[in-house]
Specification:
Radius of gyration of chain C: 20 Å
Strand content of chain C: 15-25%
Strand content of chain B: 35-45%
Oligomer: heterotrimer
Structural class of chain B: mainly beta
CATH topology of chain B: Alpha-Beta Plaits
Number of domains of chain B: 1
Shape of chain C: globular
Number of helices of chain C: 12
Helix content of chain C: 40-55%
Chains: A alpha/beta, B mainly beta, C alpha/beta
Largest interface: A-C, 76 and 86 residues
Chain lengths: 492, 75, 354
């Protein structure tokens, strides 16, 4: 009576039959005789089956010979653009931390076109297992030079042998990745002798264990044979891996800190509508007005276009924002468009504010401006041409009185910056200026009820912007009334 | 009293004749045959019964199912 | 505490609010002016809701991260501007070949090359006509206000998932940078379902995402399937807005900020006795050809855009060049004034009559 037990045989980590593979052959893989990919595929298949992780493993097929790895593995598969697998892997790992992502990459893919991506993913400590096949050559595209091709090695694109003065030295990936802080495990193995393949097997299982335990980034580099492209038999291939390649790429563990590393934890997304609303919607800080409220004064029946200008840091943009906020609180359509880019990081600053009862056409106030608020002479000079003939100029005279040549305009003025400084901070100049706007509006345009409403909406706007900072609200309100008390029309 | 022996089995049509198993075997159980299989490759064949079940041939073989190593227990 | 749904938001901020309220789960981006506020807002908003924000190492990485998250069946987005979009084209072609849904926001700036950070509309060709390799299309929505920036992400994800396609929001630096009053939409009622085809633990592990088809017939079959899908989208998803076109003899066509400028220009032209109207494409792909063809009474068209005239080709194709189509354009970051549009339109009409 004989009892048989299979000690080593076809792994259940592979599909029982390779139905995705085109053509009649459904049992073999497409790799050349003696190819290292096949050896590595078997080690991975065995591990994902042994660990019971087939349902959550996603293997990213690289561009290169292993592009069809999803013909074979009985788990999820995706093919990534050349070199981008670490980025695709990052997306998968971040989207759902349950995912166990294997980035399977060759030397051209990982160390040439995608070198930045692998270093960045490693440096972020993404929860990935990277299996890096280093065979010193581009196999699939027909034997061109790889970043890991050895000095003097002849390839289709280094027909005289790789010259270190022209093509540089073989790129040492494991050493480079191990030099980073985040990765937890880096080992270089060789798919050569049985002894070395056994070490590779353990390394692969260790990397996957790290992923399962969410320890972060593991990379196993595998020196791997490409006997057909390198025109070698099995014995010479192993000799090349163990003696020639290993000289440049020493085998061994370059980093192993998984044990001392805490598992990565990622938050759980919130989607429940009420919770989302509470986290995203702004808090209503003032009772304000009903949605149907319209300020009755005639001035508001047509679109009002406002330009604000000064030098960077004077608060021109936030003054515009305050005006826009006031408009928002009184149901206007408003737009606020800042100058953006290097300009706003110093030098001059300007912004456009439009208030309208109708849809706003251009948010850019480049002419037909109704109100120009200028905080210094040069910006006044620059933007005065935008002001309509009957438009109004509001000028901060802290740095000198209003230039004579504009005195034919309707001008309101006050030393806003000086008054703000007296209050203790230049940033209150905005509210001082809004006090001056209130004076101008009350003088020229507002019905009785809107006069009082202007003060109310200012206070609501201050609350809207600074409701968490009580003293800021208080000081701004004080500044506003100081502005109101000090603004004057220049009579000419 | 049971007796254990090991046997390496080759699926002829899954072998690509790379010879990795031949050079890996510590007991020289395998050699490359001369006939061609369905894929057009000469395939590995078993030459003796000295298999120790180490699995080296399986590990070094790049094909998923070309090699199976079994343990046979006889009463 | 009481909440309000009215906010002052830049277009760039509004699109993030819109995406979060539409259930977007992952944002992957890389800073670029004039789109950076999208990343700024996402960096706050996504983690606030326990969702994923990641600043990628480059635009290429960002779109590939989107690909990973999309393959996992998650609502994912990225955002950039002109040159960044150029870099993303490889990934967008892969997403298209793999039929993965995703949202890409493009806030156009001046080009070619480094160009400048001023607004332009010169990404039209690279976004609407493909941009990457292969015969594919993306649905392109063209928001022209902060409100639409906030409203369109939901539509974008719905279309993206319905058709398994990449959807762009394509707009310009002005819309991205302008702050306007926005009424926030309601959050979607529940987390979006993980699609059947996704690579997710909840789905069969036979699921696979790939765009490689070695057999010529297989790849042709994929392409035919894609083209059939695009035909269905062309038939069902054209969107546009019209203003005073009923009796118009001349119709201005513009999207994004140009569409808004045109609306004011139409009013101005009307005061001068010219029967003008506006057609504002809301989808640039599919281009609203049916709406344009329906304007049989219109004698001439004016394409208003901030490029060398990229959209104008689609206007001409829509009417088979059977009536004059004029170009009124600015480039280099300049935005036309209403007067300029009005005057150049009048000039173009005059030249035609002469």
């Amino acid at each position: 009576m004989e009892k048989e037990k299979i000690l080593y045989g076809r792994s259940n980590g592979f599909f029982p039959s390779f139905e995705r593979r085109p053509g009649p052959i459904k049992t073999n893989m497409h790799y050349c005789p003696g190819c290292g990919h096949g050896i590595l595929h078997k080690l991975i298949a065995e591990a994902i089956d042994d660990f019971g992780i087939k349902d959550k493993t996603i293997i990213i097929a690289p561009v290169g010979c292993a592009v069809f790895s999803y013909y074979y593995f009985d788990c999820f598969g995706i093919s990534a653009p050349h070199g981008r697998a670490p980025a695709v892997a990052t997306g998968l790992a971040r989207a759902n931390p349950e995912n166990l992502v294997i980035s399977y990459q060759g030397d051209g893919d990982l160390a040439s076109i995608g070198f930045n991506h692998i270093l960045q993913a490693a440096n972020r400590g993404e929860n990935l297992a990277v299996f890096f096949v280093n065979n010193a050559i581009y196999g699939m595209t027909g034997g061109q030079m790889a970043p890991t091709t050895l000095p003097g090695q002849k390839t289709q694109t280094s027909p005289l042998g790789r010259s270190v003065t022209s093509e540089g030295y073989p790129l040492k990936v494991s050493e480079t990745v191990a030099a980073l802080d985040a990765p937890v495990y880096v080992e270089r193995c060789a798919l050569s002798t049985v002894q070395n393949i056994r070490k590779a097997r353990l390394a692969i299982r260790k990397a996957l264990t790290n992923s399962i335990e969410r320890k972060g980034f593991s990379l196993v580099e595998l020196l791997s044979g490409c006997p057909v492209n390198l025109k070698m038999n099995a014995r010479d291939m192993n000799e090349f891996l163990d003696n020639q390649m290993s000289r440049y790429f020493p085998l061994g563990v370059y980093k192993d800190t998984a044990e001392s590393r805490d598992p990565i934890s990622r938050p759980t997304g919130i989607y429940e509508p009420q919770a989302v609303r509470e986290l995203l919607y702004p808090v209503r800080v003032a009772d304000g007005v009903s949605e149907s409220f319209r300020n009755p004064s005639r001035i508001f029946q047509s679109e009002r276009r406002i330009k604000l200008c000064g030098s960077g840091g004077q608060g021109v943009l936030s003054l515009g924002y305050m005006l826009a906020t006031m408009g928002k609180l009184r149901n206007f359509n408003v737009s606020w468009l800042p100058s953006y880019g290097p300009e706003m990081r110093g030098g001059t600053a300007n912004c456009s504010v439009v208030l309208s009862r109708n849809p706003i056409g251009s948010p850019l106030v480049s002419k037909e401006c109704n109100l120009l608020i200028a905080l210094n002479g040069p910006s006044l000079e620059r933007y005065l041409p935008t002001l309509k003939r009957n438009g109004i100029l509001l000028y901060d005279e802290s740095n000198g009185s209003c230039p004579d040549e504009v005195l034919d305009r309707v001008i309101y003025t006050l030393p806003a910056s000086d008054l703000a400084k007296q209050l203790g901070d230049l940033k209150y100049a905005n509210s001082v200026l809004l006090g001056a706007v209130a004076v101008m509006m009350c003088d020229l345009f507002l019905d009785e009820e809107d006069k009082a409403d202007f003060d109310r909406v200012f206070e609501e706007a201050i609350m809207d912007c600074f409701h968490e900072k009580e003293h800021v609200v208080k000081n701004n309100i004080k500044a506003f009334y100081i502005g109101k008390a000090n603004a004057r029309r220049i009579r000419n | 009293m049971s007796k254990k022996k090991f046997e390496v089995r080759i699926a002829p049509d899954e072998c690509k004749g790379c010879e990795r198993c031949v050079i890996a075997c510590p007991r020289n159980v395998l050699k490359l045959g001369t006939t061609l299989n369905k894929l057009g490759f000469p395939y590995a064949v078993r030459t003796g019964q000295e298999c120790i079940g180490c699995g080296g041939c399986f590990l070094t073989c790049p094909e998923p199912g070309a090699i199976t190593v079994v343990q046979i227990e006889s009463e | 505490m009481e909440y309000t749904n009215r906010m002052l938001l830049k277009g760039n901020e509004a699109v993030v609010y819109g995406a979060l309220l539409a259930g977007c789960e992952c944002f992957f981006g890389y800073p670029i002016t004039p789109a950076s506020e999208i990343a700024h807002t996402a960096a706050r908003g996504f983690p606030k809701l326990g969702r994923t924000f990641l600043q990628a190492e480059c635009e290429i990485a960002a779109i590939n991260m989107v690909m990973g998250a999309a393959a996992n069946g998650r609502r994912a987005m990225t955002a950039s501007s002109g040159l960044g979009i150029s870099l993303k084209q490889e990934g967008i072609s892969y997403l298209s070949g793999s039929e993965l849904p995703a949202l890409v926001v493009d806030i156009m700036r001046g080009g070619p090359g480094l160009g400048n950070i001023g607004p332009e509309q010169s990404d039209y060709n690279q976004v609407v006509k493909g941009g990457g390799h292969g015969s594919y299309h993306c649905i392109v929505l063209a928001p022209s206000s902060a409100q639409e920036m906030c409203d369109f992400p939901r539509l974008a994800f719905e279309l993206a998932e319905k058709y398994r396609i990449v959807v762009y929001l394509l707009t310009d630096g002005v819309i991205g940078q302008t702050m306007e009053t926005v009424t926030l939409p309601e959050p979607i009622p529940a987390r979006a379902e993980i699609p059947e085809w996704a690579l997710d633990v909840s789905r069969p592990r036979t699921n696979m995402i790939s765009s490689i088809y070695l057999e010529h017939d297989d790849l042709e079959a994929l392409n035919r399937k894609l083209q059939a899908k695009y035909a269905a989208i062309r038939a069902a998803e054209q969107r546009s807005e019209e203003y005073r076109t009923d009796d118009a003899e001349i119709v201005l066509i513009g999207y994004g900020i140009s569409g808004r400028l045109c609306r004011s220009a139409v009013d101005e032209l009307r005061t001068k006795g010219i029967k003008a109207g506006l057609l504002r494409p809301i989808t640039l792909w599919p281009f609203p050809v049916d709406a344009i063809r329906a304007l049989r009474h219109v004698k001439q068209f004016v394409a208003v855009e901030m490029s060398d005239g990229q959209m104008i080709d689609d206007v001409k194709l829509a009417i088979n060049c059977d009536r004059p189509v004029h170009l009124v354009n600015r480039m280099g970051g300049n935005v036309a004034t209403i007067d300029e549009i009005v005057n150049r339109t009048i000039d173009a009409l005059g030249a035609k009559e002469a």
